[in-house]
Design goal:
The protein is mainly α and 340 residues long. The chain contains 17 helices and five strands. The chain has helices at 3-11, 19-44, 48-53, 55-73, 81-95, 99-112, 132-137, 140-149, 152-166, 179-203, 205-229, 246-252, 261-266, 273-278, 287-293, 305-311, 327-331, and strands at residues 130-131, 256-257, 302-303, 316-318, 323-325.
């Protein structure tokens, strides 16, 4: 057995779900979210701004619910597939990300991340990039479009709410051959209409919009930031398919986002993204345990929260110098040779 295969094999000691911890996470995540939303509805009648002040807390719980959905999609939260799928669907009614189609597309991401020759399969603007040579070969208007759509404000603030609230209501990027996944999108939509319609009739549609929209907008921005930053930064490595392997891509093509303990709790330990890619079957609540038990997993690209915000601008792969760079570096003649 090679050293790389041995490393992956060793992580299997941590991939078994622990029923008590899974149930505890459900209670704290759903309970915290529902309690915070209830408080928002109560105070909204007194002051919209007071309700709005609670939106970040509710969004934090919603991000944690999305991490549970994410684990269910990898069959990591429970041992039983039906239990994972049932809980994943329940999560999707709050996260607005249709479970079955999202699960299959996300599985595609796990098969191609940081593989330069497979960027057309299961990749998106948050987990893919152009090379510097490809970017420089584009006409000026397409370079401007690339810069604009991947600017941190556009990609990480403006687009996420549009995707979660609007685009996810249609199978906009679900292949036609995925018939079950496409049907599941509309089943999710019908359930959402029933749920929010009933809530609107009970509490008033204006109140529902005043509470749920700020929470969903905040949660989508936070969630997309967490996903995109895990594959960014000038220490992240991309490779051509012949040189690509999943273990190296896990340890060099994704990062460890070191977060304060409270943020680590709300984000379900997703900062240990290198371990998640190495073994997606590890439940989120065991990622830290795995990280601390295996020294080889602690020698990966590490980002602080401040580093993470800076890393959002690293959107091009410089094959010549073997590192991620910004478009400003690529547009400068000496560009890729000097660090910004």
């Amino acid at each position: 057995m090679t050293k790389k295969n041995s490393l992956r094999q060793d992580t299997k000691d941590f991939q078994s779900p622990i029923a008590g911890r899974s149930i505890s996470q459900i209670v704290t995540s759903f309970g915290g979210f529902l309690a915070t939303c209830a408080a928002m509805y109560l105070v909204n009648g007194v002051s919209f701004w007071l309700a709005l002040a609670l939106a970040p807390l509710a969004a934090g719980f919603l991000v944690r619910i999305f991490i549970i959905q994410h684990d269910c999609g990898h069959m990591a939260f429970f041992r039983d597939r039906r239990a994972n799928d049932a809980l994943g669907f329940a999560c999707s009614l709050l996260t607005l990300a249709p479970y079955r189609s999202w699960r299959r597309q996300h599985a595609g991401h796990h098969g191609v991340w940081n593989d330069l020759d497979r960027r057309d399969r299961g990749a998106d603007i948050y987990s893919s990039c152009l090379t510097v040579a490809e970017y420089r070969a584009l006409p000026s208007w397409r370079r401007a479009w690339y810069r604009t759509t991947r600017h941190p404000i556009v990609a990480n603030v403006l687009i996420p709410p549009v995707v979660f609230i609007g685009l996810f209501r249609l199978p906009f990027d679900t292949p036609k051959a995925w018939r079950q996944e496409r049907r599941a999108v509309f089943v999710t939509d019908l359930a959402l209409v029933a749920m929010f319609g009933g809530l609107g009739l009970l509490l008033g549609f204006g109140a529902v919009a005043a509470v749920q929209l700020p929470v969903m907008i905040s949660a989508s921005i936070i969630g997309v930031f967490l996903f995109s930053v895990q594959h960014r930064g000038d220490t992240v490595v991309w490779a051509r398919h012949k040189a690509w392997d999943s273990v190296s891509a896990s340890l060099q093509g994704s990062t460890y986002l070191r977060l304060p303990r409270v943020l680590q709790w709300f984000t379900g330990n997703i900062g240990y993204h290198h371990i998640h890619h190495l073994n997606p079957r590890i439940p989120n609540y065991r990622l830290k345990e795995c990280h601390e038990a295996m020294p080889a997993l602690r020698t990966v690209p590490t980002l602080s929260l401040r580093d993470g915000f800076r890393a959002l601008r690293s959107i091009l792969w410089d094959e010549e110098h073997g590192r991620m760079v910004t478009t400003r570096q690529a547009d400068t003649p000496a560009a890729s040779g000097d660090r910004a």
